[in-house]
Structures are given as structure tokens and as C-alpha cells.
Design goal:
The complex is a heterodimer of chains A (271) and B (103). Chain A has one domain. Helices cover 72% and strands 4% of the residues of chain A. Chain A has ten helices and two strands, in the order αααααββααααα. Chain A has helices at 6-23, 28-38, 43-68, 73-94, 99-120, 155-172, 177-186, 192-216, 222-242, 248-269; strands at 139-143, 146-150. Chain A has a two-stranded antiparallel ribbon. In chain A, a hairpin with a 2-residue loop joins strand 1 and strand 2 (146-150). In chain A, helix 1 packs antiparallel against helix 2. The longest helix of chain A has 26 residues, at 43-68. Chain B has 103 residues and is mainly alpha-helical. Chain B has one domain. Chain B has four helices and no strands. In chain B, helix 1 (4-30) runs antiparallel to helix 2 and helix 2 (33-60) packs antiparallel against helix 3 (64-85). Chain B is flat, with a radius of gyration of 19 Å. Classes of the chains: A mainly alpha (271), B mainly alpha (103). Chains A and B meet through helix 3, helix 4, helix 8 and helix 9 of A and helix 1, helix 2 and helix 3 of B.
Chain lengths: 271, 103
């Protein structure tokens, strides 16, 4: 596995970071399949590399989002209790799963994500402009001249989604935003930009909760992890900058197809 | 709770990446596992430092309910560190699971 060229790993990290950032997903959903299926990296090593890579890109994205005032820290902290618990649990359970079971879990997750993305590709989320008290968890969002006020609703749904997102993160090396962000937006009334920025800000903590376990088990292979994370950093920064210029809907439809296809391929690998 | 802590976090995250990225690059170029390990660990401990900063900021703002929530998050991270420190080394069985490297 250390025979894989560092340059190839760097390019893989950059490409997945770019795609993930453009779609607001984090690169793990593309990185783990590419590392395992195309480059022959063992799935546990790929998951560990993905966790560190997602952590690095989340830190880089947070520096931008913190400046924009998009991060709702109280909400993020509250949900992080569930997400980090799920990630810790996922990281512990992953040690007891066989490679086949990990491939199959990944396949089911990828296929589910693909379907969610396909169903949501045409959806446009509208911000609520409530004048009422925003409560302890709500907040304000400025978009140009306009100011939007939002209040968090159905918090228990957000907490359950966070727990599931954390478990997926710890098991499969993903950020978990693909689960958390749509649910926070659709069910909890949180503007999509706030949901995405808050989720990204907390991904560092989520991935750390399980990354320590992978590190302790000796599954963080340093040259692979370093090359992938180094590539993902510039990739994600470029992706964030150009994300506004791409046709999001067609990109999401394409990515839904890719996720479903890769999910199928992962399922075959795990047979 | 807003403004000040966000500036501090931004500064800490930027500094951490400015330290980690050159260490990772130098480690790859020189094949030094010490540099690579230092770079990876720099990335891994940064969220932990961020969580400590947020906890302190909540406490300074006398926002006790959210200080308690932040402490809970820190406790989960500490549990992960504790569990990681007590883990046995990788088993030969897991090593055998690795597929053959690409030709």
C-alpha cells in the first residue's frame, strides 16, 4: 500500500477535496472509494486517511466561515454532543467489523446519499424571516442588505440526525455533513448556509473523536495520510471559491449517479 | 460569546494549518516519519484546542448551560483519547485483510 505514488495520492486528495467542497459534502465520500477501489489502499487505512483529510479541510473552511459570521456556535456545540458520541461509537464499532462488512456499510451509505442527492437536486431552500424571539439557539443571517432571522425547530430530530451522522463519520471516515445539513435545513428550520457552516465547523471535533482511535490502532499510515491531506487542502479551498460559478443542479445529478455507481461497485467489492 | 472567540479560533486554525502543512510536505520529501507524525498530530489536536477555547469563552461569558455542553463535548474527546491510549496494537488478522497493492 505504501507503493502508491505520493503524487498520485496528492492529486486524489486534491480532486476529492475540490469536488467535495463544490458540493458541500467534504471529500470523504469520494476519497475512500478512490483510495480503496482505484489505488488498492486497505479500507481501514483509507478511512483513517479520510478522517484526517476531512479534519484538515474542515479547519481550513472554518477559517473562512468564522469570518462570515455563518457559524451558530451554540447550536453546533449542542448537536456536537450527539455527533461526537456517534463518532466515538462508530470508531469503536469499526474495529470489530470485517473488511467485507465495512465495504457493504459504505455501499449502503453511498447509495442512500446518492438517492437523497437526486431527490434534493431541484430543491431550493427559502429562509424564514421571523421577527419573533429566536430563542437560545436561533440567530441572524446577513445576505447583502437583507437580514434573516431564524429559530431552531424540532431539535430532537436534529440531535438524532447528528448521532447518525457521527456514527457514519466514525465508521466510514466521512464528515457526516451529508446527513446533518439536509435534515437541519429541512426539518429544523436552519438556513442552509448556516447549517452547512455550522456542520463544517464541528466536523473537526467529530472526526477527532474517532481519528484518535484509528491512530491508536495503528491504522493511520503516515505517508498516505499526509499526501492525501496535503492535496485536499488546496483542492477544498479552490472548490469553495468556484462553487458559486458551477451549475449546481446538474452537478448534483451527476454526483448522485456517481455515488450510486460507486456504491454498487463497493457492494460488489464486499460480496 | 461572538466576535472575540471567532477571531481567536480563526487565528488558531490558521496557525495550526500553517504549521502542519509544511511539516507534512517536508516529511514526504525527506521520508521522515517524525515530521509526518508531527504534521498529522498537529492537525488532530487542533479541534481539541478549538473545543477548549470555546469552553473557556462560554465560561467567561457566564453562559453556564452552554459551558456544561462544551465540557460534555470535551469529555467525549477525552474518552476517545483514553480509549485510543488503551488499545492493543494492530493484529496480524487485520493486516491480512489488506488487499494486494496495485501493480
Amino acid at each position: 500500500m505504501s507503493d502508491v505514488s505520493p503524487l498520485l495520492l496528492f492529486v486524489t486528495g486534491a480532486a476529492t477535496g475540490l469536488l467535495g467542497s463544490m458540493l458541500g459534502l467534504g471529500g470523504g465520500v469520494f476519497l475512500v472509494p478512490l483510495l480503496t477501489l482505484a489505488l488498492g489502499v486497505p479500507i481501514r487505512v483509507a478511512i483513517a486517511a479520510s478522517l484526517i483529510s476531512v479534519m484538515a479541510t474542515a479547519l481550513a473552511s472554518a477559517t473562512v466561515n468564522l469570518d462570515r459570521g455563518l457559524v451558530n456556535m451554540r447550536l453546533g456545540l449542542l448537536l456536537e454532543v450527539a455527533t461526537a458520541s456517534g463518532a466515538l461509537l462508530g470508531g469503536l464499532v469499526a474495529a470489530h467489523l470485517t473488511q467485507r462488512q465495512l465495504f457493504l456499510t459504505f455501499a449502503v451509505t453511498m447509495a442512500s446519499m446518492g438517492m437523497v442527492m437526486a431527490l434534493r437536486s431541484g430543491r431550493r431552500n427559502v429562509l424564514a424571516d421571523l421577527d419573533a424571539d429566536v430563542g437560545a439557539l436561533g440567530g441572524r443571517l446577513r445576505e447583502g442588505e437583507a437580514v434573516y432571522v431564524y429559530r431552531v425547530r424540532r431539535l430532537p430530530i436534529g440531535v438524532v440526525a447528528s448521532l447518525v451522522a457521527g456514527a457514519i463519520s466514525g465508521l466510514l471516515g466521512l464528515g457526516g455533513g451529508i446527513v446533518k445539513v439536509p435534515i437541519l435545513n429541512t426539518f429544523c428550520g436552519i438556513p442552509i448556509r448556516v447549517a452547512a457552516a455550522t456542520s463544517t465547523f464541528m466536523i473537526g471535533i467529530t472526526t477527532a473523536a474517532s481519528a484518535f482511535l484509528y491512530y491508536g490502532r495503528g491504522e493511520v499510515v503516515l505517508p498516505i495520510t499526509a499526501a492525501v491531506a496535503l492535496g485536499a487542502l488546496p483542492g477544498s479551498l479552490v472548490g469553495a471559491r468556484i462553487s458559486d460559478r458551477v451549475a449546481t443542479r446538474s452537478l448534483k445529478v451527476l454526483m448522485a449517479a456517481v455515488l450510486l455507481g460507486v456504491g454498487l461497485r463497493m457492494a460488489l467489492e464486499g460480496r | 460569546m461572538t466576535g472575540g472567540v471567532e477571531r481567536v479560533l480563526r487565528w488558531v486554525f490558521t496557525l495550526a494549518l500553517a504549521i502542519a502543512a509544511p511539516l507534512l510536505l517536508a516529511g514526504l520529501l525527506t521520508h521522515s516519519s517524525r515530521l509526518l507524525e508531527a504534521g498529522v498530530l498537529a492537525v488532530m489536536v487542533t479541534p481539541l484546542i478549538g473545543a477548549v477555547i470555546v469552553t473557556v469563552a462560554m465560561a467567561l461569558a457566564r453562559d453556564w448551560p452552554f459551558t456544561a455542553v462544551a465540557l460534555l463535548v470535551l469529555a467525549i474527546l477525552a474518552s476517545s483519547l483514553y480509549a485510543a491510549a488503551r488499545l492493543p496494537p494492530p493484529t496480524p488478522a487485520r493486516a491480512r485483510e489488506a488487499p494486494a497493492p496495485p501493480s
